[in-house]
Amino acid sequence: MNASTATQSIPTVKLLIDGKFVESTTTQWRDVVNPATQEVLARVPFATPAEIDAAVASGKEAFKTWKKTPIGTRARIFLKLQQLIRENMGELAALLTAEQGKTLPDAEGDVFRGLEVVEHAASIGNLQLGELANNVANGVDTYTILQPLGVCAGITPFNFPAMIPLWMFPMAIATGNTFVLKPSEQDPMVTMRLCELAMEAGIPAGVLNVIHGGEDAVNAICDHKDIKAVSFVGSTKVGTHVYNRATLAGKRAQCMMGAKNHAIVMPDANKEQTLNAIAGAAFGAAGQRCMALPVVVLVGETQQWIPELIAKAQTLKINAGTEKGTDVGPVISCAALARVEGLIERGIADGAKLELDGRKPNVPGFEKGNFVGPTIFSGVKPGMAVYDQEIFGPVLALVAADDIDQAIEFINDNPNGNGTAIFTQSGAAARKFQEEIDVGQIGINVPIPVPVPLFSFTGSRASKLGDLGPYGKQVVMFYTQTKTVTARWFDDSTTSHGVNTTISLK
Ligand code: NAD
Predict the structure, then answer these.
(1) Active site residue 195
(2) Strand order in the sheet with 29-33
(3) Does 418 sit in the ligand 1 pocket, CB within 6 Å?
(4) pLDDT tens figures, 379-438
(5) Any residues with CB less than 8 A from the CB of 488 and at least 6 apart, and which?
(6) Is 235 touching ligand 1 by the criterion CB < 6 Å?
Protein backbone atom coordinates (compact mmCIF):
# COMPACT_ATOMS: atom_id res chain seq x y z
CA MET A 1 0.00 0.00 0.00
CA ASN A 2 1.34 3.40 -0.93
CA ALA A 3 0.14 5.01 2.29
CA SER A 4 0.68 8.70 2.68
CA THR A 5 -0.57 11.63 4.72
CA ALA A 6 -3.50 13.58 3.34
CA THR A 7 -2.43 16.95 1.96
CA GLN A 8 -4.48 20.03 1.17
CA SER A 9 -3.95 20.10 -2.59
CA ILE A 10 -5.28 16.66 -3.49
CA PRO A 11 -8.97 15.98 -2.90
CA THR A 12 -9.89 13.38 -0.30
CA VAL A 13 -12.52 10.70 -0.74
CA LYS A 14 -15.18 11.03 1.94
CA LEU A 15 -16.90 8.48 4.12
CA LEU A 16 -20.70 8.42 4.09
CA ILE A 17 -22.00 8.03 7.62
CA ASP A 18 -25.54 8.76 8.78
CA GLY A 19 -26.41 10.74 5.66
CA LYS A 20 -23.31 12.95 5.70
CA PHE A 21 -20.20 12.83 3.53
CA VAL A 22 -17.47 13.26 6.13
CA GLU A 23 -13.70 13.47 6.24
CA SER A 24 -12.06 10.50 7.92
CA THR A 25 -9.96 11.12 11.01
CA THR A 26 -7.59 8.30 10.06
CA THR A 27 -3.84 8.72 9.67
CA GLN A 28 -3.72 6.01 6.97
CA TRP A 29 -4.36 7.09 3.38
CA ARG A 30 -3.77 5.68 -0.09
CA ASP A 31 -3.44 7.47 -3.41
CA VAL A 32 -6.01 6.96 -6.13
CA VAL A 33 -3.88 7.00 -9.27
CA ASN A 34 -4.77 7.47 -12.95
CA PRO A 35 -3.35 4.30 -14.54
CA ALA A 36 -2.67 6.02 -17.87
CA THR A 37 -0.68 8.94 -16.42
CA GLN A 38 0.21 8.15 -12.75
CA GLU A 39 -1.48 11.42 -11.77
CA VAL A 40 -2.74 11.26 -8.18
CA LEU A 41 -6.46 12.00 -8.47
CA ALA A 42 -7.46 11.76 -4.82
CA ARG A 43 -6.55 10.20 -1.51
CA VAL A 44 -8.72 7.53 0.03
CA PRO A 45 -8.81 6.99 3.79
CA PHE A 46 -8.62 3.69 5.62
CA ALA A 47 -11.52 4.18 8.02
CA THR A 48 -10.85 3.81 11.73
CA PRO A 49 -12.64 1.14 13.80
CA ALA A 50 -14.75 3.91 15.40
CA GLU A 51 -15.85 5.15 11.95
CA ILE A 52 -16.78 1.63 10.88
CA ASP A 53 -18.78 1.20 14.08
CA ALA A 54 -20.51 4.54 13.50
CA ALA A 55 -21.50 3.50 9.96
CA VAL A 56 -22.97 0.22 11.19
CA ALA A 57 -24.72 1.91 14.14
CA SER A 58 -26.29 4.41 11.76
CA GLY A 59 -27.52 1.55 9.55
CA LYS A 60 -28.92 -0.27 12.58
CA GLU A 61 -30.85 2.78 13.75
CA ALA A 62 -32.16 3.62 10.27
CA PHE A 63 -33.37 0.03 9.80
CA LYS A 64 -36.01 0.56 12.48
CA THR A 65 -37.98 2.87 10.20
CA TRP A 66 -36.70 1.82 6.77
CA LYS A 67 -37.97 -1.74 7.15
CA LYS A 68 -41.48 -0.34 7.66
CA THR A 69 -41.28 2.14 4.77
CA PRO A 70 -43.82 1.19 2.08
CA ILE A 71 -42.56 -0.83 -0.89
CA GLY A 72 -43.65 1.89 -3.32
CA THR A 73 -41.78 4.61 -1.43
CA ARG A 74 -38.60 2.52 -1.43
CA ALA A 75 -38.95 1.59 -5.08
CA ARG A 76 -39.60 5.18 -6.20
CA ILE A 77 -36.14 6.20 -4.97
CA PHE A 78 -34.64 3.84 -7.52
CA LEU A 79 -36.85 5.24 -10.27
CA LYS A 80 -35.29 8.60 -9.45
CA LEU A 81 -31.78 7.14 -9.16
CA GLN A 82 -31.96 5.53 -12.61
CA GLN A 83 -32.91 8.93 -14.04
CA LEU A 84 -30.01 10.66 -12.24
CA ILE A 85 -27.55 8.03 -13.46
CA ARG A 86 -28.75 8.52 -17.06
CA GLU A 87 -28.46 12.31 -16.74
CA ASN A 88 -24.91 12.01 -15.36
CA MET A 89 -23.70 9.17 -17.58
CA GLY A 90 -20.95 11.21 -19.29
CA GLU A 91 -19.52 12.49 -16.02
CA LEU A 92 -19.65 9.05 -14.38
CA ALA A 93 -17.90 7.40 -17.33
CA ALA A 94 -15.17 10.06 -17.38
CA LEU A 95 -14.53 9.63 -13.66
CA LEU A 96 -14.42 5.86 -14.07
CA THR A 97 -11.97 6.02 -16.97
CA ALA A 98 -9.71 8.43 -15.09
CA GLU A 99 -9.30 6.19 -12.05
CA GLN A 100 -9.74 2.72 -13.59
CA GLY A 101 -8.30 3.10 -17.07
CA LYS A 102 -10.92 1.38 -19.25
CA THR A 103 -12.06 3.13 -22.43
CA LEU A 104 -14.84 5.70 -22.21
CA PRO A 105 -17.37 3.56 -24.18
CA ASP A 106 -16.55 0.58 -21.93
CA ALA A 107 -16.88 2.81 -18.84
CA GLU A 108 -20.36 3.76 -20.05
CA GLY A 109 -21.05 0.04 -20.41
CA ASP A 110 -19.88 -0.49 -16.81
CA VAL A 111 -22.31 2.18 -15.57
CA PHE A 112 -25.09 0.93 -17.85
CA ARG A 113 -24.91 -2.69 -16.64
CA GLY A 114 -25.30 -1.33 -13.09
CA LEU A 115 -28.11 0.96 -14.16
CA GLU A 116 -30.05 -2.10 -15.33
CA VAL A 117 -29.99 -3.41 -11.74
CA VAL A 118 -31.22 -0.05 -10.45
CA GLU A 119 -34.14 -0.29 -12.89
CA HIS A 120 -34.88 -3.74 -11.56
CA ALA A 121 -34.75 -2.46 -7.96
CA ALA A 122 -37.43 0.06 -8.96
CA SER A 123 -39.88 -2.80 -9.53
CA ILE A 124 -39.02 -4.66 -6.34
CA GLY A 125 -42.70 -5.07 -5.43
CA ASN A 126 -43.04 -7.73 -8.10
CA LEU A 127 -40.13 -9.71 -6.71
CA GLN A 128 -40.57 -9.53 -2.94
CA LEU A 129 -43.84 -11.42 -2.89
CA GLY A 130 -44.64 -14.16 -0.44
CA GLU A 131 -46.85 -17.18 -1.19
CA LEU A 132 -50.22 -18.17 0.19
CA ALA A 133 -51.93 -21.53 0.30
CA ASN A 134 -55.61 -21.34 1.11
CA ASN A 135 -57.29 -24.05 3.26
CA VAL A 136 -54.23 -26.15 4.10
CA ALA A 137 -56.51 -27.61 6.83
CA ASN A 138 -60.02 -26.77 7.95
CA GLY A 139 -60.14 -22.97 8.09
CA VAL A 140 -56.35 -22.78 8.02
CA ASP A 141 -54.22 -20.75 5.57
CA THR A 142 -50.42 -20.74 5.31
CA TYR A 143 -48.45 -17.84 3.88
CA THR A 144 -44.90 -16.57 3.72
CA ILE A 145 -43.52 -13.10 4.36
CA LEU A 146 -40.13 -12.01 2.98
CA GLN A 147 -38.73 -9.57 5.52
CA PRO A 148 -35.47 -7.62 5.30
CA LEU A 149 -32.53 -8.79 7.42
CA GLY A 150 -31.13 -5.57 8.89
CA VAL A 151 -27.71 -4.01 8.17
CA CYS A 152 -26.08 -5.70 5.16
CA ALA A 153 -22.61 -5.02 3.77
CA GLY A 154 -20.93 -5.08 0.36
CA ILE A 155 -17.25 -5.39 -0.55
CA THR A 156 -16.35 -4.63 -4.17
CA PRO A 157 -13.39 -5.12 -6.55
CA PHE A 158 -11.56 -2.57 -8.69
CA ASN A 159 -12.55 -3.82 -12.12
CA PHE A 160 -16.21 -2.69 -12.22
CA PRO A 161 -16.38 0.25 -9.79
CA ALA A 162 -19.85 1.27 -11.05
CA MET A 163 -21.59 -1.97 -11.99
CA ILE A 164 -20.68 -4.07 -8.97
CA PRO A 165 -21.62 -1.58 -6.20
CA LEU A 166 -24.90 -1.22 -8.16
CA TRP A 167 -25.35 -5.01 -8.05
CA MET A 168 -25.43 -4.64 -4.28
CA PHE A 169 -26.86 -1.63 -2.50
CA PRO A 170 -29.94 -0.95 -4.69
CA MET A 171 -31.35 -4.48 -4.25
CA ALA A 172 -30.46 -4.62 -0.54
CA ILE A 173 -32.06 -1.25 0.16
CA ALA A 174 -35.09 -1.77 -2.10
CA THR A 175 -35.90 -4.95 -0.18
CA GLY A 176 -35.89 -2.96 3.09
CA ASN A 177 -32.36 -3.41 4.43
CA THR A 178 -29.81 -0.77 5.29
CA PHE A 179 -26.32 -1.01 3.83
CA VAL A 180 -22.63 -0.44 4.50
CA LEU A 181 -20.54 -0.41 1.32
CA LYS A 182 -16.76 -0.90 1.22
CA PRO A 183 -15.63 0.02 -2.33
CA SER A 184 -12.28 -0.95 -3.82
CA GLU A 185 -9.59 1.29 -2.40
CA GLN A 186 -7.99 1.39 -5.86
CA ASP A 187 -10.82 3.30 -7.59
CA PRO A 188 -13.50 4.52 -5.14
CA MET A 189 -14.35 7.83 -6.83
CA VAL A 190 -17.04 6.80 -9.31
CA THR A 191 -18.61 4.61 -6.61
CA MET A 192 -18.81 7.66 -4.33
CA ARG A 193 -20.37 9.74 -7.11
CA LEU A 194 -23.04 7.04 -7.51
CA CYS A 195 -23.64 7.16 -3.76
CA GLU A 196 -24.05 10.95 -3.95
CA LEU A 197 -26.66 10.46 -6.67
CA ALA A 198 -28.35 7.79 -4.54
CA MET A 199 -28.62 10.24 -1.64
CA GLU A 200 -29.92 12.90 -4.04
CA ALA A 201 -32.54 10.39 -5.20
CA GLY A 202 -33.89 10.30 -1.66
CA ILE A 203 -32.20 7.51 0.28
CA PRO A 204 -32.70 8.56 3.93
CA ALA A 205 -29.78 9.15 6.30
CA GLY A 206 -28.29 5.93 7.62
CA VAL A 207 -29.86 3.67 4.99
CA LEU A 208 -26.69 3.78 2.85
CA ASN A 209 -23.28 4.20 4.48
CA VAL A 210 -19.83 3.96 2.91
CA ILE A 211 -16.54 3.18 4.58
CA HIS A 212 -13.17 2.82 2.89
CA GLY A 213 -10.17 0.64 3.56
CA GLY A 214 -8.60 -2.71 2.83
CA GLU A 215 -8.03 -5.88 4.82
CA ASP A 216 -8.83 -4.41 8.26
CA ALA A 217 -12.10 -2.84 7.11
CA VAL A 218 -13.14 -6.10 5.42
CA ASN A 219 -12.35 -8.12 8.53
CA ALA A 220 -14.28 -5.64 10.68
CA ILE A 221 -17.31 -6.13 8.40
CA CYS A 222 -17.02 -9.92 8.62
CA ASP A 223 -16.81 -9.81 12.43
CA HIS A 224 -19.33 -7.06 13.23
CA LYS A 225 -22.18 -8.40 15.35
CA ASP A 226 -24.74 -5.99 13.87
CA ILE A 227 -24.13 -6.88 10.21
CA LYS A 228 -26.44 -9.66 9.03
CA ALA A 229 -25.24 -10.40 5.50
CA VAL A 230 -22.14 -9.80 3.38
CA SER A 231 -21.96 -9.66 -0.39
CA PHE A 232 -18.42 -9.88 -1.79
CA VAL A 233 -17.03 -9.68 -5.32
CA GLY A 234 -13.30 -10.08 -5.88
CA SER A 235 -10.54 -12.66 -5.99
CA THR A 236 -10.94 -16.29 -4.92
CA LYS A 237 -8.35 -15.94 -2.17
CA VAL A 238 -9.99 -12.97 -0.47
CA GLY A 239 -13.54 -14.18 -1.18
CA THR A 240 -12.88 -17.54 0.43
CA HIS A 241 -11.49 -15.76 3.49
CA VAL A 242 -14.55 -13.46 3.63
CA TYR A 243 -16.96 -16.36 3.24
CA ASN A 244 -15.32 -18.39 6.00
CA ARG A 245 -14.95 -15.48 8.39
CA ALA A 246 -18.42 -14.00 7.82
CA THR A 247 -20.28 -17.31 8.02
CA LEU A 248 -18.33 -18.27 11.15
CA ALA A 249 -19.69 -15.06 12.68
CA GLY A 250 -23.23 -16.21 11.80
CA LYS A 251 -23.77 -14.05 8.73
CA ARG A 252 -25.26 -14.89 5.40
CA ALA A 253 -22.55 -14.55 2.74
CA GLN A 254 -22.32 -14.63 -1.03
CA CYS A 255 -18.90 -14.42 -2.66
CA MET A 256 -18.44 -14.04 -6.41
CA MET A 257 -14.79 -14.75 -7.04
CA GLY A 258 -11.96 -15.32 -9.49
CA ALA A 259 -12.08 -16.90 -12.90
CA LYS A 260 -10.20 -18.47 -15.78
CA ASN A 261 -12.85 -18.58 -18.46
CA HIS A 262 -12.45 -20.87 -21.47
CA ALA A 263 -14.08 -20.73 -24.88
CA ILE A 264 -14.39 -23.71 -27.20
CA VAL A 265 -14.11 -23.06 -30.92
CA MET A 266 -15.71 -25.78 -33.05
CA PRO A 267 -14.71 -26.28 -36.69
CA ASP A 268 -18.21 -25.34 -37.88
CA ALA A 269 -18.11 -21.92 -36.13
CA ASN A 270 -18.47 -18.76 -38.19
CA LYS A 271 -14.78 -17.83 -38.39
CA GLU A 272 -14.97 -14.05 -38.69
CA GLN A 273 -17.61 -13.65 -35.95
CA THR A 274 -15.73 -16.02 -33.65
CA LEU A 275 -12.33 -14.37 -34.04
CA ASN A 276 -13.88 -10.94 -33.44
CA ALA A 277 -15.66 -12.21 -30.33
CA ILE A 278 -12.50 -13.81 -28.94
CA ALA A 279 -10.30 -10.78 -29.55
CA GLY A 280 -12.89 -8.50 -27.88
CA ALA A 281 -13.36 -10.73 -24.85
CA ALA A 282 -9.68 -11.62 -24.34
CA PHE A 283 -8.22 -8.14 -24.76
CA GLY A 284 -11.12 -5.72 -24.04
CA ALA A 285 -10.87 -3.89 -20.69
CA ALA A 286 -7.19 -4.97 -20.84
CA GLY A 287 -8.32 -8.48 -19.84
CA GLN A 288 -9.48 -7.20 -16.44
CA ARG A 289 -12.97 -8.64 -16.50
CA CYS A 290 -14.00 -11.60 -14.39
CA MET A 291 -15.89 -12.68 -17.51
CA ALA A 292 -12.96 -12.14 -19.91
CA LEU A 293 -11.87 -15.06 -22.11
CA PRO A 294 -8.21 -15.75 -21.28
CA VAL A 295 -8.24 -19.36 -22.60
CA VAL A 296 -9.44 -20.61 -25.97
CA VAL A 297 -9.68 -24.31 -26.74
CA LEU A 298 -9.24 -24.75 -30.49
CA VAL A 299 -10.92 -27.93 -31.65
CA GLY A 300 -9.53 -29.80 -34.68
CA GLU A 301 -8.82 -27.73 -37.76
CA THR A 302 -9.52 -24.41 -35.98
CA GLN A 303 -5.92 -24.67 -34.81
CA GLN A 304 -5.13 -23.30 -38.27
CA TRP A 305 -6.91 -20.05 -37.34
CA ILE A 306 -4.08 -18.83 -35.07
CA PRO A 307 -2.42 -16.51 -37.65
CA GLU A 308 -5.74 -14.79 -38.32
CA LEU A 309 -6.38 -14.38 -34.59
CA ILE A 310 -2.93 -12.80 -34.19
CA ALA A 311 -3.62 -10.47 -37.10
CA LYS A 312 -6.91 -9.45 -35.50
CA ALA A 313 -5.21 -8.79 -32.12
CA GLN A 314 -2.58 -6.67 -33.86
CA THR A 315 -5.26 -4.29 -35.16
CA LEU A 316 -6.30 -3.33 -31.63
CA LYS A 317 -5.25 0.16 -30.57
CA ILE A 318 -3.46 0.50 -27.23
CA ASN A 319 -3.91 3.92 -25.68
CA ALA A 320 -5.35 5.82 -22.73
CA GLY A 321 -9.04 5.13 -22.21
CA THR A 322 -9.82 8.79 -22.82
CA GLU A 323 -8.47 8.69 -26.39
CA LYS A 324 -10.90 8.10 -29.24
CA GLY A 325 -10.61 4.70 -30.90
CA THR A 326 -8.77 3.02 -28.03
CA ASP A 327 -9.37 -0.71 -27.74
CA VAL A 328 -6.99 -1.61 -24.92
CA GLY A 329 -6.37 0.77 -22.01
CA PRO A 330 -3.85 0.42 -19.19
CA VAL A 331 -4.04 -2.12 -16.37
CA ILE A 332 -5.01 -0.77 -12.98
CA SER A 333 -1.60 -0.27 -11.31
CA CYS A 334 2.15 -0.47 -11.70
CA ALA A 335 2.03 -3.58 -9.49
CA ALA A 336 -0.57 -5.21 -11.77
CA LEU A 337 1.59 -4.40 -14.82
CA ALA A 338 4.68 -5.92 -13.21
CA ARG A 339 2.67 -9.04 -12.34
CA VAL A 340 1.30 -9.45 -15.89
CA GLU A 341 4.77 -8.94 -17.40
CA GLY A 342 6.21 -11.42 -14.90
CA LEU A 343 3.64 -14.03 -15.88
CA ILE A 344 4.42 -13.54 -19.58
CA GLU A 345 8.08 -14.14 -18.70
CA ARG A 346 7.10 -17.30 -16.85
CA GLY A 347 5.01 -18.50 -19.80
CA ILE A 348 8.10 -18.33 -22.00
CA ALA A 349 10.22 -20.06 -19.35
CA ASP A 350 7.57 -22.78 -18.94
CA GLY A 351 7.77 -23.59 -22.66
CA ALA A 352 4.59 -22.02 -24.07
CA LYS A 353 5.03 -20.48 -27.52
CA LEU A 354 4.80 -16.68 -27.43
CA GLU A 355 2.88 -15.95 -30.65
CA LEU A 356 2.33 -12.26 -29.94
CA ASP A 357 4.27 -10.22 -27.37
CA GLY A 358 2.39 -7.17 -26.07
CA ARG A 359 4.97 -6.06 -23.55
CA LYS A 360 6.21 -2.45 -23.46
CA PRO A 361 4.02 -1.01 -26.21
CA ASN A 362 4.77 2.47 -27.46
CA VAL A 363 1.98 4.81 -26.34
CA PRO A 364 2.95 8.37 -27.30
CA GLY A 365 1.84 10.95 -24.76
CA PHE A 366 1.21 8.29 -22.10
CA GLU A 367 4.71 6.92 -21.57
CA LYS A 368 4.14 6.46 -17.84
CA GLY A 369 0.94 4.43 -18.27
CA ASN A 370 0.56 0.81 -17.16
CA PHE A 371 0.26 -0.53 -20.69
CA VAL A 372 0.57 -4.05 -21.95
CA GLY A 373 -0.82 -4.96 -25.34
CA PRO A 374 -2.57 -8.10 -26.57
CA THR A 375 -0.36 -11.11 -25.93
CA ILE A 376 -0.97 -14.63 -27.25
CA PHE A 377 0.56 -17.94 -26.21
CA SER A 378 -0.05 -21.24 -27.98
CA GLY A 379 0.88 -24.71 -26.77
CA VAL A 380 -0.28 -23.84 -23.24
CA LYS A 381 -0.73 -26.68 -20.76
CA PRO A 382 -1.98 -27.07 -17.18
CA GLY A 383 0.96 -26.71 -14.81
CA MET A 384 2.19 -23.58 -16.61
CA ALA A 385 1.72 -20.38 -14.60
CA VAL A 386 0.01 -18.66 -17.56
CA TYR A 387 -2.64 -21.36 -17.43
CA ASP A 388 -2.94 -21.99 -13.71
CA GLN A 389 -3.16 -18.38 -12.55
CA GLU A 390 -5.76 -15.72 -13.26
CA ILE A 391 -3.55 -13.20 -15.10
CA PHE A 392 -6.09 -10.35 -15.25
CA GLY A 393 -4.31 -8.76 -18.20
CA PRO A 394 -4.67 -8.94 -22.00
CA VAL A 395 -3.00 -12.35 -22.28
CA LEU A 396 -4.66 -15.16 -24.21
CA ALA A 397 -3.68 -18.82 -23.84
CA LEU A 398 -4.46 -21.15 -26.74
CA VAL A 399 -4.84 -24.86 -26.16
CA ALA A 400 -5.72 -27.63 -28.60
CA ALA A 401 -8.33 -30.38 -28.40
CA ASP A 402 -9.29 -33.16 -30.80
CA ASP A 403 -13.02 -32.98 -30.23
CA ILE A 404 -15.77 -31.47 -28.06
CA ASP A 405 -15.57 -34.22 -25.43
CA GLN A 406 -11.90 -33.54 -24.84
CA ALA A 407 -12.55 -29.79 -24.74
CA ILE A 408 -15.37 -30.12 -22.18
CA GLU A 409 -13.29 -32.44 -20.00
CA PHE A 410 -10.41 -29.96 -20.14
CA ILE A 411 -12.62 -27.08 -18.97
CA ASN A 412 -14.24 -29.13 -16.21
CA ASP A 413 -10.77 -30.05 -14.93
CA ASN A 414 -9.96 -26.37 -14.37
CA PRO A 415 -10.85 -25.35 -10.79
CA ASN A 416 -12.76 -22.21 -11.84
CA GLY A 417 -16.40 -22.09 -12.88
CA ASN A 418 -17.29 -18.47 -13.62
CA GLY A 419 -17.99 -18.17 -17.35
CA THR A 420 -17.47 -20.08 -20.57
CA ALA A 421 -18.54 -19.97 -24.21
CA ILE A 422 -18.83 -22.21 -27.24
CA PHE A 423 -18.63 -21.03 -30.81
CA THR A 424 -20.47 -23.36 -33.16
CA GLN A 425 -23.27 -23.54 -35.72
CA SER A 426 -24.41 -26.87 -34.33
CA GLY A 427 -27.37 -26.89 -31.97
CA ALA A 428 -26.44 -30.40 -30.87
CA ALA A 429 -22.90 -29.35 -29.92
CA ALA A 430 -24.20 -26.28 -28.07
CA ARG A 431 -26.75 -28.33 -26.17
CA LYS A 432 -24.20 -30.97 -25.22
CA PHE A 433 -21.94 -28.18 -23.99
CA GLN A 434 -24.64 -26.53 -21.84
CA GLU A 435 -25.58 -29.89 -20.35
CA GLU A 436 -22.10 -31.16 -19.52
CA ILE A 437 -20.07 -28.07 -18.64
CA ASP A 438 -19.66 -27.28 -14.90
CA VAL A 439 -19.58 -23.49 -15.15
CA GLY A 440 -22.06 -20.82 -14.01
CA GLN A 441 -22.43 -18.49 -17.00
CA ILE A 442 -22.56 -20.12 -20.43
CA GLY A 443 -22.38 -18.30 -23.75
CA ILE A 444 -23.47 -19.86 -27.02
CA ASN A 445 -21.79 -17.70 -29.66
CA VAL A 446 -21.78 -15.01 -26.95
CA PRO A 447 -18.30 -14.34 -25.56
CA ILE A 448 -19.18 -12.49 -22.32
CA PRO A 449 -22.52 -13.89 -21.12
CA VAL A 450 -23.08 -11.62 -18.09
CA PRO A 451 -26.78 -12.13 -17.28
CA VAL A 452 -29.19 -9.18 -17.36
CA PRO A 453 -30.91 -8.54 -14.00
CA LEU A 454 -33.99 -10.63 -14.84
CA PHE A 455 -31.58 -13.46 -13.98
CA SER A 456 -28.95 -13.76 -11.25
CA PHE A 457 -25.18 -13.83 -11.69
CA THR A 458 -23.88 -17.22 -10.68
CA GLY A 459 -20.74 -19.37 -10.77
CA SER A 460 -19.50 -22.76 -9.65
CA ARG A 461 -16.54 -24.32 -7.85
CA ALA A 462 -13.70 -21.86 -7.06
CA SER A 463 -15.63 -18.95 -8.59
CA LYS A 464 -18.48 -18.77 -6.09
CA LEU A 465 -19.33 -19.47 -2.49
CA GLY A 466 -22.86 -19.15 -1.14
CA ASP A 467 -26.01 -20.47 -2.76
CA LEU A 468 -27.68 -17.27 -3.89
CA GLY A 469 -26.35 -14.87 -6.51
CA PRO A 470 -26.29 -11.09 -6.63
CA TYR A 471 -29.20 -9.30 -8.40
CA GLY A 472 -32.09 -11.05 -10.17
CA LYS A 473 -34.62 -13.14 -8.26
CA GLN A 474 -32.04 -14.93 -6.12
CA VAL A 475 -30.84 -11.74 -4.47
CA VAL A 476 -34.29 -11.11 -3.05
CA MET A 477 -33.96 -14.40 -1.20
CA PHE A 478 -30.45 -13.42 -0.12
CA TYR A 479 -31.54 -10.10 1.37
CA THR A 480 -34.71 -11.37 3.05
CA GLN A 481 -35.70 -13.75 5.78
CA THR A 482 -38.71 -15.96 5.11
CA LYS A 483 -41.35 -16.22 7.80
CA THR A 484 -44.03 -18.86 7.32
CA VAL A 485 -47.33 -18.10 8.99
CA THR A 486 -50.00 -20.73 9.59
CA ALA A 487 -53.22 -19.01 10.61
CA ARG A 488 -56.68 -20.07 11.75
CA TRP A 489 -59.39 -17.49 12.46
CA PHE A 490 -62.35 -18.94 14.34
CA ASP A 491 -65.78 -17.62 13.60
CA ASP A 492 -68.39 -17.77 16.32
CA SER A 493 -70.12 -20.84 14.88
CA THR A 494 -66.99 -22.99 14.97
CA THR A 495 -67.55 -26.03 17.13
CA SER A 496 -64.72 -27.18 19.30
CA HIS A 497 -63.40 -30.69 18.70
CA GLY A 498 -61.65 -30.69 22.05
CA VAL A 499 -57.95 -30.97 22.75
CA ASN A 500 -55.79 -32.10 19.76
CA THR A 501 -52.73 -33.91 21.08
CA THR A 502 -51.43 -34.88 17.59
CA ILE A 503 -49.21 -33.02 15.09
CA SER A 504 -52.03 -33.01 12.51
CA LEU A 505 -53.86 -29.77 11.73
CA LYS A 506 -57.44 -30.71 12.54
P1 NAD B 1 -9.45 -8.38 -4.47
O2 NAD B 1 -9.93 -9.70 -3.97
O3 NAD B 1 -8.02 -8.05 -4.35
O4 NAD B 1 -10.25 -7.20 -3.73
C5 NAD B 1 -11.65 -7.24 -3.56
C6 NAD B 1 -11.99 -6.51 -2.26
O7 NAD B 1 -11.38 -7.19 -1.17
C8 NAD B 1 -11.52 -5.07 -2.23
O9 NAD B 1 -12.54 -4.27 -1.71
C10 NAD B 1 -10.29 -5.10 -1.32
O11 NAD B 1 -10.17 -3.96 -0.55
C12 NAD B 1 -10.57 -6.29 -0.41
N13 NAD B 1 -9.32 -7.00 -0.03
C14 NAD B 1 -8.16 -7.09 -0.74
N15 NAD B 1 -7.26 -7.84 -0.10
C16 NAD B 1 -7.84 -8.23 1.06
C17 NAD B 1 -7.42 -9.05 2.16
N18 NAD B 1 -6.21 -9.58 2.19
N19 NAD B 1 -8.28 -9.25 3.17
C20 NAD B 1 -9.52 -8.72 3.14
N21 NAD B 1 -9.97 -7.93 2.13
C22 NAD B 1 -9.15 -7.70 1.11
O23 NAD B 1 -9.96 -8.28 -5.99
P24 NAD B 1 -9.61 -7.16 -7.06
O25 NAD B 1 -8.20 -7.30 -7.48
O26 NAD B 1 -10.11 -5.84 -6.61
O27 NAD B 1 -10.58 -7.62 -8.26
C28 NAD B 1 -10.22 -8.57 -9.22
C29 NAD B 1 -10.73 -9.93 -8.85
O30 NAD B 1 -12.14 -9.91 -8.70
C31 NAD B 1 -10.46 -10.98 -9.92
O32 NAD B 1 -10.09 -12.19 -9.29
C33 NAD B 1 -11.80 -11.14 -10.62
O34 NAD B 1 -11.99 -12.37 -11.27
C35 NAD B 1 -12.72 -10.96 -9.47
N36 NAD B 1 -14.06 -10.58 -9.91
C37 NAD B 1 -15.05 -11.52 -9.85
C38 NAD B 1 -16.32 -11.20 -10.29
C39 NAD B 1 -17.43 -12.22 -10.25
O40 NAD B 1 -18.57 -11.82 -10.38
N41 NAD B 1 -17.14 -13.51 -10.08
C42 NAD B 1 -16.58 -9.92 -10.79
C43 NAD B 1 -15.54 -8.98 -10.82
C44 NAD B 1 -14.28 -9.33 -10.36
Answers:
(1) no
(2) 3-4, 29-33, 40-45
(3) yes
(4) 999 999 999 999 999 999 999 999 999 999 999 999 999 999 999 999 999 999 999 999
(5) 137, 139, 140
(6) yes
